[in-house]
Amino acid sequence: MNPYQQEFEEIYKTHITREGADKLLEWMRGTDFFTAPASTKYHCACEFGLVQHSVNVYKTLVERYFEEGDSPETFAICGLLHDLCKAGFYKVSTRNVKDDATGRWEKVPFYMVEDSFPYGHGEKSVFLIERFLRLKTSEAMAIRWHMGGFDDSVRAGSFAMSHAFEKYPLCVKLHLADLEATYLRERGTSSVNKK
């Protein structure tokens, strides 16, 4: 077990005790969630990147936004599982890249998207989680809208995200934690696509 998975599972087992949590974790172990990248070329585009990113978002969420009255279980669910949709989403392929020093072409690995279940991003994570455990409405909203303005439906002119942000502060907290983890804490974490 890689150290990111070990830390993820410790947080998960400590804080997520809802009925079905054990079955969800067992299902996740049967996927590539604990070895997959978090992106193709941006943040954590490396082996174990997805679990690393999930732990980073959880830590950022707790450190920056946990207030009296907030639920540790809710923060663990949202932080650790917001990108569950990326399990089974990437595959490693190769491409030819010219080595500047030698002038020779060589095959290098890179991650590409191979989405076998194209159900969206946040909504797909909600769907997968709820196959095993029930989410509170605020949790489902936060996970659904964690991409903020990067979500396709927002660009299409929907005001649903804005309404969710107004009604559920957890949506804003998770979105901000995801942004901070991605763009500030995880800078320079891409390794497969360096060439």
Radius of gyration: 17 Å
Rounded to the nearest angstrom, the distance between the terminal CA atoms is 28 Å
Number of helices: 9
DSSP, total strands: 2
Order of helices and strands: HHHHEEHHHHH
Helix content: 40-55%
Overall average pLDDT: 88
Shape: globular
Oligomer: single chain
Strand content range: 5-15%
Describe the structure.
The protein has 195 residues and is mainly alpha-helical. It contains nine helices and two strands; from the N terminus they run ααααββααααα. Strands 1-2 form a two-stranded antiparallel ribbon. A hairpin with a 6-residue loop joins β1 and β2. The radius of gyration is 17 Å and the shape is globular. The chain starts with a helix and ends in a 10-residue tail after the last helix. The mean pLDDT is 88.
